[in-house]
Amino acid sequence: MKIWCFSCFIFGKEEEEEEDNKAMKEGISENEGETEGNFGNNEEDTEATALRDLRQERYGQESMRWTDEMNRAMQRARSGFGGDGGGATNWGEMGPVFEEEGQFVAPPLVLRRSAFCTSWLGRGENSGSSSAVAEAAGSCNEGCDRDAHNKRARVNSCSNDCHYAAVMASGAGNSTPSADRHLGLRQSSSTPSNNDIFYHNFMWNNNSDDNPFDSNGARDDGDDSITSKSEDLEVRMDLTDDLLHMVFSFLDHVNLCQAAKVCRQWRAATSHEDFWRCLNFENRNISVEQFEDMSRRYPNATEVNIYGAPAIHLLVMEALFSLRNLETLTVGKGLLGDPFFVALGDCIMLKSLNVNDATLGSGIQEIPISHDRLCHLQLTKCRVMRISVRCPQLETLSLKRSNMAQAVLNCPLLHLLDIGSCHKLTDAAIRSAAISCPQLESIDMSNCSCVSDETLREIALTCANLHILNASYCPNISLESVRLPMLTVLKLHSCEGITSASMSAIAYSYMLEVLELDNCSLLTSVSLDLPRLQNIRLVHCRKFADLNLQSIMLSSIMLSNCPALHRINITSNSLQKLALQKQENLTTLALQCQYLQEVDLTDCESLTNSICEVFSDGGGCPMLKSLVLDNCETLTAVRFHSTSLVSLSLVGCRAITALDLACPSLELVCLDGCDHLEEASFCPVALRSLNLGICPKLKILSIEAPSMVSLELKGCGVLSEASINCPLLTSLDASFCSQLKDDCLSATTASCPLIGSLILMSCPSVGSDGLLSLQRLPHLSVLDLSYTFLMNLQPVFDSCLQLKVLKLQACKYLTDTSLEPLYKDGALPALQELDLSYGTLCQFAIEELLACCRHLTHLSLNGCVNMHDLNWGCSGGQLSELPGKISSPASFSHENIPVPIEQPNRLLQNLNCVGCPNIRKVVIPAVALCLHLSSLNLSLSANLKEVDVVCFNLCFLNLSNCCSLEILKLECPRLTSLFLQSCNIDEGVVEAAISQCGMLETLDVRFCPKICSISMGRLRAACSSLKRIFSSLSPS
Fold first, then answer.
1. Is the pLDDT of residue 942 over 80?
2. Quick one: residue 212, left, alpha or beta (phi over 0 = left, psi -120 to 50 = alpha)?
3. Strands 535-539, 556-560: parallel, antiparallel or unpaired by DSSP?
4. Which pairing describes strands 352-360 and 376-380: parallel, antiparallel, or unpaired?
5. Which residues contact residue 971 at a Cβ distance below 8 angstroms, ignoring those fewer than 6 apart?
6. What sign does the CA torsion over 179, 181, 186, 192 have?
7. What is the rounded CA–CA span in Å between residue 718 and residue 695?
8. Which range among 40-49, 294-303, 814-823, 920-929 shows the weakest confidence by mean pLDDT?
9. Residue 852: CB partners within 8 Å, gap ≥ 6?
10. What DSSP designation does 227 have?
11. Per the record, which residues fall in region Disordered (predicted)?
12. How many CB atoms lie within 10 A of CB 101?
């Protein structure tokens, strides 16, 4: 088969097809209504050719005149096809639809195409009479896009005909203004909805004899031997009928109609009755005539849905009489008269009837429903006084929300009855209806306020197989004298009569699996021993105080917003998760749940310390893995000894002072907000990390964790005794542990030999003995001794040979000679980062350190008040004595990079001298060999006046808030960021400095009083690589 690439086809039967073919064979071309021309003869005579050319020229010159005449003709004939304005649909521009002997006859393709052209130009003008349409058909046909050889539609995405297909693609709604605008369809005096368009498209596309195109997309009356010049536009694909059937099975009815317009094979495939077993006209504006056509076309349809359709009574009567195999019928939103229920018995195959939101009969008399094979009946939201149902095969009946006073049932096999929200049904009527169905298994009488215990007793005696009962919102029942032994599901929401006395009656239902008691305001206690109970709900029971459940199959408990609940006793072998959140008065909890794994007791503010015994070994929960006790503020001493516990959360338990966890499987513990914890023991646990920095009052700590790698004690200011046995520990942060002494540090280093990072900041009690114990840590690489009272660092130099990071911030007792082993004796050869910020070292010690420690990569000298100048170009600091030769030392540029010959380069990468108040001059020449320096921070140095830096790899330079800066010289070809915020520096100096930085991208000159907004252009001209300039845009 061939699939042609085109926007849309309009199929139909041309009434004069035989005459046209005959005329073409005889060489007659005088008929102006012919669209494709004459291709019957192999040769075309000269006279016919000239006449055709003349017609085409005349059409091109007078197209507007034809349009005006067409519009006038249509206005004159507005009552032509429409008749008296009522009845059948008038299809306007598309041409009328006729019925002949029950067969569908489409209007000629010529008329439809000409009417489409006029519709597009006229924008919705009503169609005229057939003679008026024929008057303009000839001229319109001359302009049709047809392939002159194969007589198929050309590819033309801008064709006006595509508007018809656009309507089919629209969704099923009540109206489509855009479709009406393009098509100008009208039914009677109003514009039809998409539902009418859907029906007529379906009728045109499913008439197997009316399609002028064959399965290959070509006209039947053409010469197949003649090939088109545009043959390369064809898409050839061979699809078998079975494959098409499988593909089309995934389409809905609207898309099936779209597919039917492709070719004859697709039309035949989409017309298969398998796709039209279900005729769904829900909320569609379908007429009785249209429905009759569909019924005759598909008499084997088994399911019909006409809910929301107009004239519902006539449609449903047609369905009952025409569709003899109908099994499922859905109707609603209308009036169903008595004849419908009388004729219902004649539809012998009907099995399911759904009536929703309808008025049955006149609404005041009894409606009989009798059918021998009906199995499912739903009459929901129906308005009727009385109904009588006699259906011997009926299995389910729903009368939910129907407005009826009585229902007489004669359904011996009925097993499901739903009369929920039938407010007018009396207690006697409900009793009579239920006991007349002895096979009932499920009954829903929710919101039936008249139901009493007497009715339930009668039902229990008559319906021995009753399994499901929903009596929610029935205020008059208490169940005290009702026995329902076979019940499996019982729902009693908001039943004001349910009390603790009702539980004795429920206890007789030994088969009960689901029990729901939400909003039972008078219920105070529940004590049940039901072996099959699996699910219980107790929500918003204001007076409920005591729960005692024994069920080996209990798997789900929902307890919420029961403010009086104070005691729970549960025995179950199936319960795995228990959530009892916000039970503020719960004080006693007893559990015997062998498979319980998760317990959440968040905001149970009245729980006592005895809860720990419940969740410890021997307490009844041997497989407990997760326990949440967040915000249980009455807990003071928590002691858990559990071999199964994996996760414990005590967030917000502010009253806890003692914590003892002997849980070898414990992997996660949260102690946020435990502000008063004084003693903690974790022996043994499986924790990999522990943060006790949020426990500022912790005094005694004992940890035995074979898997722990990280321990944070930051802020435990009163911690004086600590026993830490963690053989895999690699990181220990004991910052601000002011009471931590040397003996504790020595014991820790002995038991934790793998420590690589040790933070002892603000630990003033640590002395030389404690530092000597660091020799037990061969992997120690990071040591922080900031804010300590150390005066001698020799124990560190002797013990930490692999140290890479040493922080000595604010160690004010270090003397000038404290660091001599670093730059004289070569101590700590692996040291890379050194922090001496806020120290008291003199200028000479700093210069010696800079000159000799060439292996340092990061050096911080922030806030060093004794550092005056950083001049690596003078003779000071032994720079002049260092042997070495530099090629071209006088100049340094991007093309001429200094190459050290004998002297090794400095490895320094980051140098921070922030807030050095006495530094005045910074000079780093090429001879300093700082080839790796990438970041230099000199901000907040208020007295800094001169900066002269020659550094090839420098990328970041910060001189912000250097308010005295006057001289700035830079030869840094790789500098990308320069910060001069709040610097009192001249514009010309900045311009000259950045001109030597060919890769500068970011320049910050905000709050520089001598640099105005109009200077931004000159700065960009000085450095073409600038991308971002931050300025305060102050005027000059």
1. yes
2. alpha
3. parallel
4. parallel
5. 892, 893, 949, 950, 951, 996
6. positive
7. 10
8. 40-49
9. 822, 823, 824, 878
10. P
11. 16-45
12. 5
Find the angle CA(16)-CA(17)-CA(18) to the nearest 5 degrees. Answer: 95
d(CA 452, CA 449): 8
Is the CB of residue 483 less than 8 Å from the CB of residue 503? no
- Mean pLDDT across the chain: 78
Helices (H) and strands (E) in the chain, counts: 25, 52
For 760-770, write each residue's pLDDT tens digit. Answer: 999 999 998 99
| Bridge partner residues of 548 (DSSP) | 527, 569
First to last CA, the chain: 81
Strand extents, DSSP E, 634-751:
637-641, 647-649, 658-663, 668-670, 679-685, 689-691, 700-704, 710-712, 721-725, 731-733
Report d(CA 950, CA 872) in Å as an integer.
11
pLDDT tens by residue, 401-431: 998 888 999 999 999 999 999 989 999 999 9
61: buried, middle or exposed (CB in 10 Å: 19+, 13-18, 0-12)? Answer: exposed
Lookup result for tokens 């502000």: 675
Structure tokens at 425: 């049904």
- Statement: residue 269 has pLDDT above 50: yes
One DSSP character per residue, 303-354 reads EEE-TT-SSHHHHHHHHHHH-TT--EEEEEEEEE-HHHHHHGGG-TT--EEE
Q: Evaluate if residue 905 carries a pLDDT over 90.
A: no
- Tokens standing for 163? 């508007």
Pick from 5-9, 221-225, 843-847, 848-852: least confident: 5-9
> How far apart, in whole angstroms, are the C-alpha atoms of residue 476 and residue 492?
12
By three-state DSSP, how is residue 15 classified? coil
Pair type for strands 235-236 and 2-3? antiparallel
How far apart, in whole angstroms, are the C-alpha atoms of residue 79 and residue 93? 14
Non-local (6+) Cβ contacts of 335 within 8 A are 312, 313, 358, 359
**At a CB cut-off of 8 Å and minimum separation 6, what does 953 contact?**
931, 932, 933, 934, 974
Q: How far apart are CA 721 and CA 588, in angstroms?
A: 36
Q: What whole-number distance in Å separates Cα of residue 960 and Cα of residue 816?
A: 30
- What number is the average pLDDT over the span 624-645? 94
Q: By the 8 A CB rule, do 642 and 616 touch?
A: yes
Tokens of 302: 């088994």
Output DSSP code: residue 821.
H
What is the arrangement of strands in the sheet containing 946-950, beginning at the earlier edge strand? 869-871, 921-924, 946-950, 967-971
Longest CA–CA span in the chain (Å) reads 124
Pair of tokens at residue 365 = 């008399």
Question: Quick count: other Cβ atoms within 10 Å of Cβ 410?
Answer: 14
CA distance 491 to 537: 10
The helix (H) or strand (E) run that includes residue 196 is helix 194-205
Please give the angle made by the CA atoms of 869, 873 and 876, to the nearest 5 degrees: 65
Q: 684: cis peptide before it, omega within 30°?
A: yes
Sign of the Cα torsion 649, 651, 655, 656 reads positive
* Torsion region of 1029: left, alpha or beta (phi above 0 gives left; psi -120 to 50 gives alpha): beta
How far is it, in rounded angstroms, from Cα 333 to Cα 336?
A: 9
- Percentage with pLDDT > 90 across the chain: 51
For residue 601, give both structure tokens: 């007791």
Structure tokens belonging to residue 103: 């067969």
